[in-house]
Amino acid sequence: MAEESVWLRPRKRERRPLTLDRIVTEAVALLDEEGEARLTMRRLAERLDTGSTTLYWHVRTKDDVLDLALDAVFGEVPLPDAGGWRDRAGELVSAWRAALLRHPWSTGLLDRPMLGPNALARTEFLYATLAEAGFGGPDLPAAAFSLSTYVTGSATMQARDEAATDPAVRELMVDRLAAYPTLAGHGLGHDWDATFARGLGYLLDGMAASIRGAR
Fold first, then answer.
1. Mean pLDDT of successive 10-residue segments in the chain (215 residues)?
2. 83 and 186 both lie in a single domain
3. In 3D, which of 57, 32, 33, 63 has the Cα closest to residue 45?
């Protein structure tokens, strides 16, 4: 339920030496090393060298930890401070993708409510940048959604592809695509960075043309 979100509850006072920042840092490290499936409150308490009771003072559930960790990933995305709207929007979403790929587990959590301060600040920046460019009314969320969903979709697909490292699985994928010649020729083995940059260019070109056409 929404009212149970860690972001919608008053923050408790710290019980040092354990702090919420330390909990989040250790949770991100554990997730990076072993993935979401291996994250439990008990294992996190052990890594923090503390008891579960102390940990539960700061966070109620694993969901709290995941929400905080995901927002920490968003916090790694710098806010561009130079260039025109196109440069700033492109730089933001490219850095957003890079942050997600540094922490592949994060792509599996993108259906969670994005109510953390870092996620909201980046979303606000994207909206403000596009509004400055001339998007307004229903065009503004449409433009923002186009960029944000492109980033999350691209990162999710890449993370899943890179996780399929078993040669036997890769061979099965190739065999499966044999009946689909266009996919077989272009759907596997491409340069993810180059593909993302090209697709981002298509989106930004279309947005720029839309603005010019409206003037």
1. 68 72 96 94 93 88 96 98 95 98 96 93 98 96 97 94 78 82 77 95 95 75
2. yes
3. 57
